[in-house]
Protein: ATP phosphoribosyltransferase regulatory subunit
Organism: Emcibacter nanhaiensis
Amino acid sequence: MLEPNDKALLPEGLHDTLANDAEYEAVTVNRLLDSFAAQGYARVEPPLVEFEESLLSGPGAAQSRHMFRVMDPASQRMMGVRTDITGQVARIARTRLKNSPRPLRLSYAGQVLRIKGTMLRPERQFVQTGVELIGSDSFQAYVEVILLAHDALTSVGVGDLSLDLSLPLLVPAICDGLAIDEETTRIVREALNARDVGELENVEGAIGEIARQLLSAAGRADKALDILDGLKLPEQARNMCDELAQVVSILADVAPGLHVTVDPGEYQGLEFQTGIGFTYFAKGVRGELGRGGRYEANAEMDQGEAATGFSLYLDSLMRALPEAPAPETIYVPFGTDLAELPPLREQGYRTVQGLEPANDAGAEARRLGCRHLWQNGKISPLG
Amino acid sequence: MLEPNDKALLPEGLHDTLANDAEYEAVTVNRLLDSFAAQGYARVEPPLVEFEESLLSGPGAAQSRHMFRVMDPASQRMMGVRTDITGQVARIARTRLKNSPRPLRLSYAGQVLRIKGTMLRPERQFVQTGVELIGSDSFQAYVEVILLAHDALTSVGVGDLSLDLSLPLLVPAICDGLAIDEETTRIVREALNARDVGELENVEGAIGEIARQLLSAAGRADKALDILDGLKLPEQARNMCDELAQVVSILADVAPGLHVTVDPGEYQGLEFQTGIGFTYFAKGVRGELGRGGRYEANAEMDQGEAATGFSLYLDSLMRALPEAPAPETIYVPFGTDLAELPPLREQGYRTVQGLEPANDAGAEARRLGCRHLWQNGKISPLG
């Protein structure tokens, strides 16, 4: 038998957001979406649930074990609750917006739900928002998207931002160019991803030397680029590094305060990416604020097209913001002419009406947590 | 085997909202929440899923057959996907905000999901937003909440509003006061709810006469109130009618353009209500825009308190609005100095950057659907 208080408990990893925090999160999401809209990204709003196969197609496949499923009585088919919105946006681009001109700029925001939280992200439900720039494999698309994330994060007040850049396909490109066997490629790739110095010491030949240099390159962008610049790399890998250097150089111009790092060997969680990957962090905040990169949207459909985008996660993003500001509330005693309220609201006050007569309007206002009192046609601040 | 296009199909009653429509809906929800906040309602954001028993407690019980369920692997207990947010708000008031001063003003907005749509509301997922004013059984609470819904709907541009008022407990109160037996009470109540003239013709005595008058009262508020006023009613029922008349009179003052009707015998869908119930409609729009009233929040908890509130449904509400306005987009050709873009955005333009050189910037801008072109430091409108 559950007691009322037990009944009220929420499942692990799910929570109620209250009052100023809830409003602050909503306002923050709106500001992010405004930043996206201001750069031509059109909002799409896919449903919370859709057929399982749709959600699990392409990059979504990795989400299978994180996804809640429900049976749809209408179709007798399994539906999933989305764990990520990116795949839904790709689906929309492929179907309903198939004939819209490219590049297609789409933005989204919505709740996602996961069966299990992680160490860094214990929440099982959070708001994901972001953009996809679909149908361009240009260099400029990286610049636009990385800077847009930066603008958006800055616009909502996140300070002390850092950006980590990676090239998940660099090591495969190097190994491919040097005709390295599959097993060695795997060892090098995994060791670099895990930053395992010991493992790399045993790798012989040019690839061993390059791998050790790549490992030492991880860190501040200027140092990393110097090291990458000094490496003798196969052409495709060299192009990747040059593109990365170009991004870093533009960022230094446009966002000089941004702390940029490079991790050339990282690929975990970026398995579907095909170019430069990036992750934003804020100093002292657990978990990344967002990540992005380029991938082949709808690759399995034979109509693949390059998409560059990012997702921001509101759980960690809200942790990077200062406390929610308290609103300016004003108590309007019972019996006040209703016509007196709109002008107060136009001045930015939130009116709290007395529903019954109170002996001491000031005390009643304080009891309700109001910061001002409307009395005799005047606004009195309450201490 | 599903073809790509089949895979992309969404389950019945679920849909993607695109571009201007998606943005317009989001902007509309924000404006509604701004209206609620301006009158002191604090936002709460409960999770999409929680334990089944929580969602089904109290008025939520009626939602059982509409609710998708998932097993929570963490607790090994069933969770439900919410079909309605009102009960979650009551839960928050009862638990985390138990010690907050009353009356408590809470607002909310979020997606709800239902197993099956209805004729009037075929969508299985839609946004519900609204308020609850908890812990006051005052008359003024009705006035505040009914007018707040009116203000909010008007603020987002819904025109031609009508408001239907009902007293779901009026007939029980009359029958109780006249000591009418249970079976006759049931017959009268159901016949009035169904507006079944024939059934009422056979009801004898004073209750028969009153019931036929109540039926004839349904319609325009002034006519309805005249009829109600002429009835000889038991005291509790008389008080209800007087309260209703007072609400109508205030509305006539404050919102003279609002078309008000009264249906004194209606109770369907209002089973949990304890006072005046109200429903907003817009002329020519299928389905109600929202409904509200008073109910006993957390009645089963032995800590019941009166709550007055309403919910608005964004599916029907969006049908009551004019078409979404198209944004002012401006094409900024490839190679434009990035520093030239922010001033354009500050003027309200949405910048769309060229990612690669185009031979004819104007043609490229048109191809992308832009309405303006930025060239040689000037804004040129495109025909």
